[in-house]
Amino acid sequence: MTRTKKYEPVILDRSDLLAVENPARYTGGEWNMTIKDDVLNQIDATGETQYVRFAFCFPDVYEIGMSNLALRILYHVLNLCPYVWCERAFSPWTDMDHILREKKIPLFSLESKTKLADFDILGFTLQYELCYTNVFQMLDLAGIPLLSSERSEEDPIIVAGGPVVFNIEPMADCFDLVMIGEGEEMILELMALMKKYKDSKQTQNRMSKEDFLLLAEKIEGVYVPSFFTVTYADDQTISSIEANRKGIKNRVSKRIILDMDAASYPTDMIVPNTRVIHDRAYLELFRGCIRGCRFCQAGFIYRPVRERSVNTLCEQGVALERNTGYDEMGMLSLSTSDYSELAELTDKLLAAYEGHHTSLSLPSMRVDSFSLELTQKVSSTRKSGLTFAPEAGTQRLRDVINKGITEEDILSSLELAFEGGWNSVKLYFMLGLPTETIEDVIGIAELVRKIEKLYYEIGRRTNSRMRKLELTVSTSMFIPKPFTPFQWEKQDSLEELTKKQMILRDRLRSKNIKYIWHDLDTSIWEVVIARGDRRLGAVLLDGYRAGNIFDAWDECFSLKKWMPILEKHGLSHAFYATRQRRDNEILPWDHIDCKVKKSYLLAERDRAYQAIVTPSCRENCQGCGAAVFGGGVCYESK
Amino acid sequence: MNQSERDLEMTRLPHQTGYIYRLRFSRSGSLAYIGHLDLMRTFERAFRRSGLCLMHSQGYNPRPIMVFALPLGVGIESDRDYLDVSFVLNLAVQDILSAVRPCLPPDLSIISGWQTQESKGSIMALVSAATYRLEAPGIVCAIKSLLQKEEIIVKKKSKGQIRSLDIRPLILDAIAKDPIKEDDITVVVLAGSHENLRPDLLLSALVEYAGYSQDLAANCRVIRTGLFAGVYPNLKTFEELDKIC
Question: For chain B, which terminal residue's Cβ has fewer other Cβ atoms within 10 angstroms, N or C?
Fold first, then answer.
């Protein structure tokens, strides 16, 4: 591939921009976007630049990508680096995809409209498995070969990060290297090496891509998939995963940021010109979660819990509001009410925003009176809906998944909420959890009915005219994920899951209840990819070639198109989805180390079978292994 | 209540409205591709970043008091648009301009501004005409031939229904500044809440009635170059209306 020798931005025709849904997805030009004129001047003058050019790629549409915190943080961290310019690129929606292909327009960055093939490195953040085909889409539209082995020394280095990369095996052949864990420090170490690699190309001692990867592999947290060889046994399971270069680490440990107050955080976030999914500024209260719900991958891979101090958050909150002009500040974490000084933080922020018409949003709250009071205090406007996630309908099953709430917790906090005037409640449940029986499914309907009854009882008791109750019940499918105690579990078959949905539909017919069920087809496929191995790489590639993109979108996803491709490659859905793994089976992600010990996950799995609840990290440390990092909640009381 | 009374009512609130400033702004590039609501939000955030205190409406869901003269369609640039915004404090215009200008995204500019009185009426209700500059190969000829027609019936989507509309009476004039140039013409059309001609309707009429190429029409650059009050041909700019020169 020949490189552009002058700065030539990709310009879309007005007619093309007006032919697609929301053209602002492709125009950039937002407040706080970083433009490094120096780079463009260098290119105009000499045809090259000394800077490392990084394209941060999000394999979904702009509105979703711009709501992602990883993008915000790493964009900021990379652009602070004096020899790097990080720009952004997103998946073009299907309408723009057609135009780009038809007119042979290469995919470009939003900042300088430079075609992606001209960058030194493309970094993908992978937030969900079903975005894999969009990685292919972006590379393909950029004119970059899709597989690592097909790319030349002149092509950009293709890297990935994000929660999904804890099992990146299905995409192992695509990425040159993968960053496991939190990226702020790791990515700068990689950039320093990248700069050396780029500079070396101007000298007699040119580094090869292999040289570069061998050095990159030395960075803690960096995983080079091509440096490992996987072999399979006759029963299709993995027989070995081995490093195929000398001096390569046998297991790749995840990286984390230990000191959250010292970590760089963007208070100059980009403000999109068009409405995005989470159209607000956000503060990150902490990483990790003390709860350890057994189905939740985030609860294990982000261990240990590390909090930001109230002071740091207040400083960041004040600066963010001033620098962005947003009138809403989101408090992000996996479980906001577990932040140890939440009341103090919200009081201080509300005081700082006094008279500014700025509100706080508190997602991921647990159900209790404290949370309700807080929600009431921070919402300056009308009462919006409350969201509860009991996840399971019976106490037994809630104990199995270690969701440490009881029916009494749910009902007593809803009583408070209803008395306080709330009339809109959303309830989230999962179907197909390990050990689930029909009684557990019926339990969901019974709990919902109890809540419905409670609402009108309160009306009678307080003699007040109640507004119409709006109960929204939503069920999603349990998907066993790597690095959870349920990583060995089977998923229910399509028939079983359909039957369970039907049972609920029949029992949730009421004018007060709206039952929303998650599309089964995407779950049936996600489970294959989430625990997949390298053999799925060819399946994904074929699927992409057959036109599958935006698999995370129900309107685009087609299970019918995927299944024959899986079979064509001699693989079966049953093997990946509905098969219980042996305890000692080599799992595709066994060479990745998230520092929660496998023995701990197995012990948790056994406690699940016995419906024994495990206390939170703050209550009673269970020695999961995450203490090796030497910080966070593991050392709070020590 | 007719439309103009309704427009008036939207800004004439029964309580204090703060100090109203009329700002002239322009947009181009990436900002031309957002819709009206997005543009409102973009301005609101820029004002908030400036640190100036916006006057908010009262009630359940307080919103900043901002009124735009006429929404800009997606894809339309502007040299001369107006919005009224209320601030809590009585500030010198220069202070407002120098506070807000550094807070605007690239491609959005505030050209000038002045303090105005609410009693002069909502800016939305005052707008009666607009000028659009159209830039595309051969557009001058096409517009001139279109204007020969007695009537120009186009299909217009309105409230979910498609109805026919004669847009000929909505076109007041067409001016080609440079008689040699074939690709640059300014049209004067009725605009505002009573009768309004959107440039995309004009462009589709060019294709239908003047044999103009669909592709050229779709790529025609459209720039709103003026908004006026009064009755044609006695149109007044908002600067003239408020005696600002």
Answer: C
The reply to whether omega before B64 is within 30° of 0 (cis) is no
For A541, which DSSP code?
Answer: H
- pLDDT tens-place string over residues A101-117: 999 999 999 999 999 99
Query: Which residues in chain B are closer than 8 Å to A381, comparing Cβ atoms?
Result: 60-61
Q: Where in chain A are the domains?
A: 14-253, 280-379+595-638
Cβ(B227)–Cβ(B188) under 8 Å?
Answer: no
pLDDT digits over B112-143, tens only?
A: 999 998 766 789 999 999 999 999 999 999 99
Q: Which chain B residue has the Cα nearest residue A328?
A: B45
Distance, in angstroms, between B24 CA and closest chain A CA? 20
Q: Is B38's Cβ below 8 Å from some Cβ in A?
A: yes
Question: CATH number for the A14-253 domain, one of 3.30.470.10, 3.40.50.10330, 3.40.50.2300, 3.40.50.1580?
Answer: 3.40.50.2300
Q: The tokens of A318 are what? A: 């004040």
A-chain CB neighbours of B54 within 8 Å are 357
Q: Please tell me the distance from the alpha carbon of residue A343 to that of residue A607, in angstroms, as a whole number.
A: 34
Residue A86 and residue A56 in contact, taking contact as beta carbons nearer than 8 Å: yes
Please provide the CATH number assigned to the domain covering B3-126.
Answer: 3.30.70.580
CA–CA dist B72, B123 (Å, integer) = 15
Which one of A18, A325, A355 has the shortest CB-CB distance to B45?
A325
| ipTM confidence | 0.92
B37 part of contact set with chain A, CB < 8 Å:
yes
pTM of the predicted model, to two decimals?
Answer: 0.94
Architecture field, domain A280-379+595-638: 2-Layer Sandwich (3.30)
Integer Cα distance of A613 and A533 in angstroms: 32
Give the closest of A24, A323, A355 to B34, CB-based. Answer: A24
For A420-493, where are the alpha helices, taking DSSP H only? 438-462
